[in-house]
Amino acid sequence: MATKRKTAKTAKTAKTAKTAKKAPAKRASPKAKKTGKKPAAKKLAPRRAPAKPAKLQKAAPKAKAKAPPPVKAKAPPPVKAKAPPPVKAKAPPPVKAKAPPPVKAKAVAAPAPAKAAKAAKAPYIGHFCWHDLMSTDVPGSLAFYKEVFGWTSTAHDMGPMGTYNMFGASGTDFGGVVPFDQVEGAPSHWMPYVAVADVDATCAKAGKLGGVVCVPPTPIPNVGRFAVVADPLGGTFSPIQLDTTPMRDPLAQPTVGMVAWNELITPDPAKAGAFYTKLLGWKISEMEMASMGTYHVFKLGDRDVAGMMKTPADVPPGARPTWLAYFMVTDVDATTREAQDAGALVQMPPFDVPTVGRCAVIQDPACAVFGLWCPAKK
Hints:
Elements: H1 2-22, H2 25-35, H3 38-48, H4 51-57, H5 60-66, H6 68-74, H7 76-82, H8 84-90, H9 92-98, H10 100-105, H11 113-119, E1 128-135, H12 138-149, E2 152-157, E3 163-169, E4 172-179, E5 189-195, H13 199-208, E6 212-220, E7 224-230, E8 236-242, E9 259-266, H14 269-280, E10 283-288, E11 294-300, E12 303-310, E13 322-328, H15 332-341, E14 345-353, E15 357-363, E16 369-375
Parallel strand pairs: 1-4, 5-8, 9-12, 13-16
Antiparallel strand pairs: 1-5, 2-3, 3-4, 6-7, 7-8, 9-13, 10-11, 11-12, 14-15, 15-16
Helix pairs in contact: 1-2, 2-3
């Protein structure tokens, strides 16, 4: 009987020890006091002790996590702060510096070579320096003008602006073709460009004089900034502020195939003349042209810049005022026939202008109107 009690007690003690291993140390202590076996509690206490260092090991990564932020936070600022200034600081000066020097150089007694070179560009201001054909049929226009005039054409990728086809004659580029969508009934037409010192100021002044800015000042990569302005009567032209010397000297004598003269056809020469003289600084001289009436000549200094005449009576009412470009040819009659064979319409057959030469007015297959001129023989 004593042996059974001892065995039972031993089994109970073993069961208590087994339970103590699974239970937490704090709950094992009371049982140890009841059984009177203090060594069991001492053995359980050391096993619970490693749990505290295990928690402390998790704090170590926090020390490493604090190190990266200052490294990343300090690195970006100096990179971003140093990059923008040189770009913004260098870009504006060249653009603004090109327009003022020619004006200031005139008042300086002994200008520096650089200023003198820029002052040499001043004579171009106020003169026609480029011509674009705004065409509703670019492929057809290229084919027509190359066949009639023998012009060359070169395609240039203008990025977002698309492909620009440049016209050349006598070895010099003088214009190009621009895709044009008919707006408010406007047909294809030739757009003349006038060199100005400040395109923004020109547009602002045009608005005050009753004109309309159709296209606001817009940059052309590696060329300059241009706009499209309509005079109070609707005649359109493009003021352009060039960054470089014009590809063709506007003051040079015209050669075969090139634009030799520009003429404004308008219903009110007096009103249109007032607009252009105030806007571009031109002067006007008049001359009688017999049956053609009074012919107005725009002048800049002692040079003739362009002409202006009242819209002929036989032109349909409501016709838009337009700037007419005359191309120099060696034989007006022969070129007129060639243009007809290529699909053009003759608006004014060849006619003579005393002391000036022989002329004609043609409408190309895309409806753009232009003139032909052969100088009078001296």
